[in-house]
Write a structure and sequence with these properties.
Elements lengths: L1 E5 L4 H12 L3 E6 L2 H14 L4 E5 L5 H14 L5 E4 L14 H28 L4 E5 L12 H21 L5 E7 L20 H11 L10 E4 L9
Parallel strand pairs: 1-2, 1-4, 2-3, 4-5, 5-6, 6-7
């Protein structure tokens, strides 16, 4: 399949791309930082024979998202799978955070997903077996102390997934929400976390790759995965 992975230059997004490459899917990585994208594509090519392309895009910008779709058309890359993983974590409480921080969190974590899907939905409907995989969070199921801005946005992602699934099922486009708990990424840099306490990014990659092995009439609607000892909540 041809798969576009947003936030694909590091962390969970890169791990998803690596697992999809192992399965032989054709990839397009999307992120803001060109240097990280280049490194990520090189790392994937070293461990698989998958075709990997990449494009820079600031998903907080509507103009950039429109350019992303145009660039895909120009390059002849027609994704039949969207893995929407790009996100932004801003530490802090709801009432003590600025209006700008709240807006930034919503734009990157939620609104960008809506805009990307809207840009590509027509071509997704035209291809058999198309899938949209939204990377949410267990913070979208409960309060998220210390990360409330992200938590609110992830509740929105969950609502988006449920309603999008309902709207697109008749067109044969499957929608899956993957909601990981604490995962060992840069977001935990500087924290003293016992070894093995968090999920490995590859855990999420394997789950995403597995959803694409099912028959075209089967859709995994929701996956929740947490560390064995549960999430760490401050």
């Amino acid at each position: 399949m041809t798969v576009m992975v947003t936030g694909g230059s590091r962390g969970i997004g890169l791990a998803i791309a690596q697992e999809l490459a192992k399965a032989g899917h054709q990839l397009l990585l999307v992120a803001r930082n060109a240097r990280r994208l280049e490194r990520a594509a090189h790392a994937i090519r070293e461990t698989s024979a998958a075709e990997v392309q990449y494009l820079t895009c600031d998903l907080a910008s509507l103009d950039d998202i429109e350019k992303l779709h145009t660039a895909c058309v120009a390059a002849g890359f027609r994704p039949n799978v969207l893995v929407l993983n790009a996100g932004l974590f801003i530490e802090g409480s709801l009432m003590e955070s600025s209006d700008a921080a709240f807006a930034d969190s919503l734009n990157v974590n939620l609104v960008s997903m809506y805009r990307v899907v809207k840009s590509f939905v027509r071509s997704l409907k035209a291809m058999k077996g198309s899938r949209i995989i939204l990377i949410g969070s267990t913070g979208g199921f409960e309060a998220y102390p210390g990360g409330a801005l992200c938590g609110v946005a992830k509740w929105g992602v969950r609502g988006f997934a449920v309603n999008l699934r309902h709207e697109l099922m008749g067109a044969g486009v499957g929608v899956t929400l993957v909601a990981p708990g604490g995962t060992l990424t840069d977001a935990w840099a500087g924290e003293e976390i016992p070894e093995g306490r968090l999920l490995e990014p590859a855990d999420i990659g394997k789950l995403v790759a597995a959803t694409l092995t099912l028959s075209s009439q089967a859709v995994v609607e929701e996956i929740i995965v947490r560390p064995m000892l549960g999430d760490i909540r401050e």
